[in-house]
Amino acid sequence: MKILVVEDEHKIANSLKKGLEQESYAVDVAFDGQEGYDFAISEEYDLIILDLLLPKMDGVEICLKLRKQQVHTPVLMLTAKGQISDKVNGLDAGADDYLTKPFAFKELLARLRALIRRPKNNTGTTLKIEDLTLNTSNYEVRRGSKLVKLSSKEYALLEYLMRHPEQVLTKKQIIDHIWNYDADVLPNTVEVFIGYLRNKMEKPFPDKSTLIQTVRGFGYKIGRVE
Ligand code: CA
């Protein structure tokens, strides 16, 4: 899952990036409104954390422009204490939720999980494909009852696949959602990480079905073998 943080206070922006990366999200940061808008319109994000008061273009204007351009990425708007009328403005502009500064990081995590958690086939915090389960609140992945230990990037990749079951995802889509804008991603990086996942969730279970399918020339999908 990839998140864009648009926040002109460097200290807040950098601590958000650090905290979110520890939670396995890929994070891009923009420090002013124009840069934020440019990122939001040109990259695919799963969520945008948008400060209200920003140099060059404010949060409400960015939101309005994005919605006008048919970009419907969920937006969590950050407001300073007491900006109630701005909240109303932001709501009209198409933000999905609000958080008043200062906030607890845990609260932010809960809000963004709620915004990202949208697929209809999965309820609560557990994603499930056959006997593979992924719990987004404690990061536990299990095949049947057996725990599968994943690295942060492996987990992020698996979560992305599981949020799009039975859907072919191209390498480009996967890279766009799992790695930062400025990350060094080699052409075979996705293959390498798919290999790691297979080694951990398929190889140790030879009598169980294969979960990740390679669709030659297109990409990968997770789900049943036809
Ligand atoms: Ca600000």
Automatic annotation (TrEMBL):
Checking SMART domains in the record gives:
REC, Trans_reg_C
Cited SUPFAM superfamilies: C-terminal effector domain of the bipartite response regulators, CheY-like
**InterPro entries in the record:** CheY-like_superfamily, OmpR/PhoB-type_DNA-bd, Sig_transdc_resp-reg_C-effctor, Sig_transdc_resp-reg_receiver, WalR-like, WH-like_DNA-bd_sf
> Does the record bear Membrane in its keywords?
no
Which residues form the DNA-binding region? Answer: 124-224
Q: Which superkingdom? A: Bacteria
- What GO MF annotations does this protein's record show? phosphorelay response regulator activity; transcription cis-regulatory region binding
| PROSITE patterns reported for this sequence | OMPR_PHOB (PS51755), RESPONSE_REGULATORY (PS50110)
The Gene Ontology CC terms held by the record are: cytosol; protein-DNA complex
Keyword set, alphabetical order: DNA-binding, Phosphoprotein, Transcription, Transcription regulation, Two-component regulatory system
Residues covered by the Response regulatory domain: 2-116
Answer yes or no on keyword Transcription regulation: yes
Record-annotated OmpR/PhoB-type domain positions = 124-224
Q: Give all 4-aspartylphosphate modified positions.
A: D51
CDD domains with a match to the protein in the record: trans_reg_C
Q: Provide a GO biological process annotation.
A: regulation of DNA-templated transcription
Which PANTHER family does its entry note? REGULATOR OF RPOS
What is the protein name given in its UniProt record?
DNA-binding response regulator
Q: Which organism is it from?
A: Candidatus Gottesmanbacteria bacterium RIFCSPHIGHO2_02_FULL_40_13
